[in-house]
Amino acid sequence: MTATRPRILTGDTPTGQLHLGHWVGSVKRRVELQDTHDCYFILANYHAFTTRADKPQDIRRDTVAIVRDYLAMGIDPERSTIFLQSEVPAIHELAFLFAMLLPFNRVMRNPTLKTEIETKGLGDTYSFGFPLYAVGQCADILAFRPVGVPVGEDQVPHLELTREVGRRFNQMYCGVPTDADDADHLKLGGVWPVPRAEVGKVGRLVGIDGKNKMSKSLGNAIFISDSPKEVEAKVKKIFTGRQSPTEPGDVNNALFQYVDAFIDDPERVAELRRRYAAGDNLGDGHVKVEVAAAINRLLEPMRERRARIGEDDALVLDILKKGCARANAVAEETLEMARKAAGLHFFPRTLSYR
Ligand code: ATP
Ligand code: MG
User: What angle do the packed helices 89-101 and 156-174 form, to 10 degrees?
Assistant: First the structure.
């Protein structure tokens, strides 16, 4: 890890464990970026309270479980910083400032929030904090002044909000002209760059229900920690609605999203697509066996790494503690810059662990 590498920030909410959607949408890219970038991975445990405030022990359990998922997937805590949102108070101060720079209706127009309200059945009784998390996420990101944020497609509206608030702050408090190019904000004295969303190879992996985005809170996920048998059983459930191996199949259906995402051999993928579309005696069952085998090939080295990590939480907590210290160093520096810009810089301060 060196200070001269460009920085990236991304992360996950501990509302469950990580699944294949996380891998294809974001984590695969994160593992690669460790070679070239200074990487920060946030566990947004305060944001988990938006839908799970009554289950703090579950949030804590899932937080630790996700760190294990990270390590299993190849995130290296020596090179990357894994940290807890709840341990970085600078983020929450920035969120308060940002809440003043965004029109309320602008936040509520966010299509990802609307989808979440619908698919998670939140009705009209969701907390005030639920839409506020979108503002908080702007602070999670900008606190680290990253150049890019590797995410799935559903996060693009959140990134748009982040870019908007970043620009507005730089313009309002740092003298960046309103017609400045996004790429020039730092050069022109802005506190943060206007960060890009970097969507993975598969921006939205559908769940095994064949309908919604694969999501840890919707019961339609294949988890990174699933056993080979669980993977096979779940892949069998992928819904296509096709009746027979000789019926011409739709190669845009959910099953073929999995074929495209997980079968590595492009020639085999092309052949499966051709025969399926033609109804050339290729049953869903057969395709599913190949998909499950491909997913298990992907997960096997992750299972081995997980087994090596063992059951001891002390290791995970040690990684988090070191990560939080590193994260606070950057976020505090950002907060000082922002407070200065906004005329709030009365006295310097730092936080330390006892
Ligand atoms: P929740 O159901 O609690 O919202 P989630 O499964 O959507 O959980 P998040 O923690 O909200 O997971 O998302 C973490 C990251 O993984 C984000 O960058 C998100 O875009 C990406 N991601 C999540 N699900 C998918 C998916 N099905 N396909 C591609 N990327 C995904
Ligand atoms: Mg989500």
Answer: 80
Amino acid identity, position 225: S
Q: Is the CB of residue 251 less than 8 Å from the CB of residue 284?
A: no
The rounded average pLDDT for each run of 10 residues, N- to C-terminus, in the chain (354 residues) is 81 94 94 96 96 95 97 97 97 97 94 90 91 97 96 93 98 98 97 94 92 89 97 95 92 96 96 96 96 98 94 94 96 96 88 73
Q: Is the CB of 320 under 6 A from ligand 1?
A: no
Residue nearest to atom 18 of ligand 1 (CA): 151
| Nearest alpha carbon to residue 77 among 350, 333, 273, 327 | 327
Beta bridge partners of 41: 10, 82
Per-residue pLDDT, 291: 98
Residue 210: count other Cβ atoms within 10 Å of its Cβ: 16
Helix (H/G/I), strand (E/B), else coil: 155: helix
- Name the residue of 10, 12, 208 whose CB sits within 8 Å of the most ligand 1 atoms, as the mutation to test its pocket: 12
Q: Whose atoms come closest to the Cα of 18: which ligand?
A: 1
C-alpha 141/C-alpha 166 separation (Å) is 10
DSSP 168-192: HHHHHHH---TT--GGGTTTTT-SS
Statement: the pTM of the whole predicted model exceeds 0.85: yes
